[in-house]
Design a protein that fits this description.
Elements (H helix, E strand, L loop, with lengths): L2 H8 L2 H11 L1 H4 L11 E2 H8 L3 H13 L3 E6 L2 E6 L1 H14 L1
Antiparallel strand pairs: 1-3, 2-3
């Protein structure tokens, strides 16, 4: 776990919002055609936040680099899920450090 990468990723409110949405996918992405267990399709973020595809991709890439999300590719689709193990380890480390 790289705390610096995680802190950089969390420094932008849109990325924090993406993580919040992924915490309750049934609430925020109920219209997704694919099962939510697969993760959230990148296009769903675009629809929800109104940002361009390239901007959404950049934000998701930053979250992936920080290991806050996992990505599964199915054909042309990319599905994102929170990496709860990394998030929990980061929060535990933050609690013990601060």
């Amino acid at each position: 776990m790289d705390k610096t990468e995680i802190l950089k990723a969390l420094a932008h409110p849109v990325r924090v919002e993406f993580l919040e949405w992924m915490k309750e996918p049934e609430r925020h992405f109920c219209d997704q055609a694919h099962p939510l267990e697969m993760g959230i399709c990148a296009s769903q973020f675009e629809k929800r936040c109104g940002l361009s595809q390239s901007t959404v991709s950049a934000h998701l890439s930053t979250l992936e680099k920080a290991r806050l999300v996992k990505i599964d590719r199915v054909g042309q689709w990319a599905f994102y899920r929170r990496d709860e193990k990394t998030i929990a380890a980061f929060l535990d480390d933050l609690r013990s450090t601060l």
